[in-house]
Amino acid sequence: MAEALVHVLWFIDGSEDEQMDQDDAVKVMEGVAHAVSTLPSDQRQELIELVGEMAAAESNPARREFLDEFPKGFGLIDDAP
Q1: How far apart are CA 28 and CA 58, in angstroms?
Q2: How big is the CA angle at 39 (ends 66 and 71), to the nearest 5 degrees?
Q3: How many CA atoms lie within 13 A of 35 on its CB side?
Q4: Where does 14-77 have alpha helices with state H?
Q5: Ramachandran region of residue 58, left (φ > 0), alpha (ψ -120 to 50) or beta?
Q6: pLDDT for the residue numbered 75
Q7: I need a surface site. Which of 9, 15, 61, 80 has the fewest CB within 10 A?
Q8: Which pTM was predicted?
Q9: Residue 3 Cα to chain centre, angstroms
Q10: Can you tell me the distance from the alpha carbon of 14 to that of 33, in angstroms, rounded to the nearest whole number?
C-alpha cells in the first residue's frame, strides 16, 4: 500500500497544469504529509525504511531524488539533527 501511495504522489508531484489543477495537487500533498506525520513512530520508521529501499533500487534519477527527499518532505522526519 505504501508503494502505491508513493507512486501516486510521484505522479501528482510531476503533473503539469494541463494534467491536474495545481491547487488540488498541493492540497493532496499537504493532506498526505499531515496523515503520515501523525503515524505512530514505529509505522513512520517502517515507511522511512521502505522508501529508502525504493530509492536504493530506483534507476530514474529524478524519481530517486523524490524518494530520497520523501521522508523529510512529507513530515516523517524533522529538521532537527
Answers
A1: 24
A2: 20
A3: 9
A4: 22-37, 41-57, 61-73
A5: beta
A6: 85
A7: 80
A8: 0.83
A9: 10
A10: 17
